[in-house]
Write a structure and sequence with these properties.
single chain, 13 strands, 163 residues, elongated, mainly beta
Length: 163
């Protein structure tokens, strides 16, 4: 893929020539970064390429300042065509540096030090369970605070009571 590197800060103007609605602060489509048959790169930025399972035409891209973390706005969602092909019990679990999922997971805390290609990790949907407990004489607590109220008194074993 032939590319052209533009000065830092100029990427916005080049992408606007290709697609005035594209926002370089977010994830871009392949066609948004193709300027005069050259793929755009920006000085001081690293390109994160999000591979799509349905084909390279659906790959997505984000420019991240080298040495900075990927922001939530620059984490791609699963391409809509890949989303359609998921089984009912599957979902996107995140992005990984290796196609087989054995590499590093990429999150909003990932520091980008060079251009990187990442692949979708598909897994089973987690089953959602809602728990309510009555403690302290009948006070109801939801699952998010339940873990905070488990107390072991004088070496007693924890006990579950089903209502």
């Amino acid at each position: 893929m032939r590319s052209v590197t533009v000065p830092q800060g100029a990427l916005v103007a080049y992408v606007a020539q290709v697609n005035p609605k594209a926002d370089v602060a977010k994830v871009l489509k392949r066609q948004d970064i193709n300027w005069n048959s050259l793929y755009l790169r920006e000085e001081g930025s690293s390109l994160v390429e999000y591979k799509a399972k349905c084909g390279t035409w659906a790959d997505q891209y984000a420019y991240v300042a080298t040495g900075q973390t990927i922001t939530a706005d620059k984490l791609a969602a699963l391409h809509k065509d890949d989303q359609k092909n998921l089984k009912e019990n599957e979902e996107l679990k995140g992005w990984n540096t290796k196609k087989d999922g054995s590499g590093d997971m990429v999150t909003a805390e990932t520091v980008v030090s060079e251009e990187m290609t990442v692949y979708p990790v598909i897994g089973e949907k987690a089953e959602e369970i809602h728990i309510t407990a009555k403690v302290n004489g009948g006070e109801s607590l939801g699952g998010e605070t339940l873990a905070k109220v488990v107390v072991f008194e004088h070496g007693q074993e924890p006990r579950l009571t089903f209502l």
